[in-house]
Amino acid sequence: MFLALVECMVWEPKGISMNRPCTRPNVLMVAVSLFVCLILYAAVAQAVLPQVAVGDSHTVVLMADGTVKAWGIDILGWSNSFSPPMKVSGVGGPVSAIAAGPTAGFAIMADGTVVAWGDHRLWPPNDDGSTPPMKVSGLGGPVTALDSKVHNTVALLADGTVKTWGENDVGQLGDGTTNYGHTPVTVVGLGGPAVGIAQGSTHTVALMADGTVKAWGNNEYGQLGDGTTGTTNRSFTPVTVSGLSGVTAIGAGFDFTVALLSDGTVKAWGNNAVGQLGDGTTTDRPTPVTVVGLDGPVMAISVGNWHTVALMADGTVKTWGLILPTKSGHG
């Protein structure tokens, strides 16, 4: 929940870059984000929130009683887009986990089914005339994790298979085609069970059970991590990220990827235009590079569109990437 709070605070405006981690979380960037986060703090003060998920301009929380609440941009047809937290009716229960796409919300039920609401491009609706929230069809098994960004969604199943749906113009679904995924398709060629997933803007990433990482889709900036770059080097099926082992967590932003290793270090690769790789440069990297300046082991990471946040072992937070100069949280 802590990193979700941080992600809420680190809004993503147009600004300048921070090429190295700064030691405190980015403060609120715009008035809208301030309003949203103050509501979140009020909710936290009144109840235990097992999980928090943050979309582009909305927030979803799983309450201790198993209900789901949301606020922010109007993705449920509410007349007031910025109303206080409201219960998402029709989800059912019990809910075991939640996720948020840029303009959609998701609830993973205790039986592994998924209920979704918001942007239809991020979830395949049933053909039964239902209105959101509604069950996602065609998953083929219980879901344990889900991530969504831009016009794509990826789901991890309990058996380690990975399902994707949405846009597929650069192979980001990983099924070997460029056919639009109106319903979930199975990622081919993983070569083993996955234990983690991350959705980038036009690429998708899977953490494998053996601690390696595989990626597929767009590779214009080297975000697949296999040593190649360019639009002609996109991959419609998974490729192995070079030189990585012992990975415990992954995240993906707009054209870049981040991995947390078992020794507490962080690696990143892909687009580095605003210093989002944290290596002290703005040079794109087609293979993983080490984030510099962390000065200690990292316990968890959270990746935004153009920035990354790290929770350190000593309880402090560091962040790098796109931030505003006067509201960066580092001075």
Order of helices and strands: HEHEEEEEEEEEEEEEEEEEEEEEEE
Distance between the termini: 25 Å
Low-confidence residue ranges: 1-19, 23-45, 326-331
Structural class per helix/strand content? mainly beta
Largest sheet: 4 strands, antiparallel
Q: How many extended strands?
A: 24
Note the beta-strand portion.
35-45%
Going across the biggest sheet, name each strand in turn: 1-24-23-22
Mean pLDDT: 83
Rg (C-alpha, Å): 19 Å
Task: Describe what this molecule looks like in 3D.
- This protein is mostly beta strands and 331 residues long.
- 7% of the residues lie in helices and 40% in strands.
- Strands 1-24-23-22 form a 4-stranded antiparallel β-sheet, with helices on one face.
- It starts with a helix and ends in an 8-residue tail after the last strand.
- Mean pLDDT is 83; it is low at 1-19, 23-45 and 326-331.
Key attributes of the depicted protein:
single chain; 331 residues; mainly beta; four-stranded antiparallel β-sheet; 2 helices; 24 strands; disordered N terminus; disordered C terminus
Write the layout of secondary structure elements.
Layout: H1 2-9, E1 16-22, H2 31-46, E2 51-54, E3 58-62, E4 68-72, E5 86-87, E6 95-101, E7 104-109, E8 114-118, E9 134-135, E10 143-149, E11 152-157, E12 162-166, E13 181-186, E14 194-199, E15 203-208, E16 213-217, E17 235-240, E18 247-252, E19 256-261, E20 266-270, E21 285-290, E22 298-303, E23 307-312, E24 317-323
Antiparallel strand pairs: 1-24, 2-3, 3-4, 4-5, 6-7, 7-8, 8-9, 10-11, 11-12, 12-13, 14-15, 15-16, 16-17, 18-19, 19-20, 20-21, 22-23, 23-24
